[in-house]
Amino acid sequence: MPFTLPTLNYDYKALEPHIDEQTMTIHHTKHNQGYVDKLNAACTNAGLDDPSWDDLFKVHAQVDTAIRNNGGGAWNHAFFWDSMSPTGGGEPSGSLLEAINTTFGSFADFKTQFSAAAASRFGSGWAWLGVKSDGTLAICSTPNQDNPMMIVDTVSCTCTPILGLDVWEHAYYLNYQNKRGDYVAAFFNVVDWGKVQERYNAAVQAG
Ligand code: MN
Description:
Layout: H1 21-46, H2 53-58, H3 65-81, H4 94-104, H5 107-120, E1 125-131, E2 137-143, E3 160-166, H6 173-176, H7 180-187, H8 193-206
Antiparallel strand pairs: 1-2, 1-3
This protein binds manganese (II) ion (MN).
């Protein structure tokens, strides 16, 4: 089977009090594992031995709902875990901060707009910061497990994600109940801006 559950770079309780141990444990071992298992089954059903993410997202996602949902679920969660760190939080710097200031006005304005995208996503989905093909930044959100790399009908914000936030209720309900806004605010205390800068550099270089 080509896909496996990603290893976390920190303990389940390491992001407390912002993201609690029980949520992290269930989210990683149950939800993420489920997407990985179902993606492997979907690839078997589709006759795909070792598909690339590009192939899954840009070709198969359009016609295969199981690959779309579980491929997104597997990729998005691995990306999400890597977007956070126990030593995260604070603000970006360098070229990423310059780009944020240019596009959104300031880091505070970026946080406001990203939080609004996360808050206004109806039902389940994700909020994203990404790099568009022209090298500029964009904020967007996608429903379900779709992401901005997919060529599917719900995605009008095609870009390379550099930060993603899971706003499914399973990501926050145990600790925050209906208060999604509190969860989004807490997320900023654990964002690994060094990782986001690395992704930004790679996306800009790739053009
Ligand atoms: Mn999730």
